[in-house]
Amino acid sequence: MSSAQAVITAVLFVWLGMVLAISFLEAPLKFRAPQVTLPIGLGIGRLVFRALNTVEVGFAAITVVALLFASFGGVAVAAVIAVVILAAQLLFVRPGLTRRSDAVLAGEDAPRSNAHFAYIALEVIKAIALLVGGILALLDAVA
Description:
Shape: elongated
Keywords: Membrane, Transmembrane, Transmembrane helix
Number of strands: 0
Low-confidence stretches: none
Protein name: Transmembrane protein
Number of helices: 4
Strand content: under 5%
Order of helices and strands: HHHH
Largest sheet: none
Structural class: mainly alpha
Number of domains: 1
């Protein structure tokens, strides 16, 4: 296994683990905890997702650099899909979610946002791309 293969395999699987843990486990569960109101949950969620997205941007950058140092075929396609989805989430979906959470935290009665469903759909696709990319990277390494 080359250094680039090792890096991209590790990054894709760690990135996947973080997305699964935060987006699909922590995010929905925090609203079920006793005493957690919508504003408290949104405040926690903003902090957690800001941290997650910061780490994801780092992982995306490492992934792109690793792709420059080796030919990965299907791994590259899956990894680029994950990077593009992250960019779409940050540039197009998160601003709408931020506006709604700002309104709720300011005490306004803001309606639910369809941006949340878009973010979840993109998160599912990103998780699948990361899983496929990680598996293909492992298969390339053992071939």
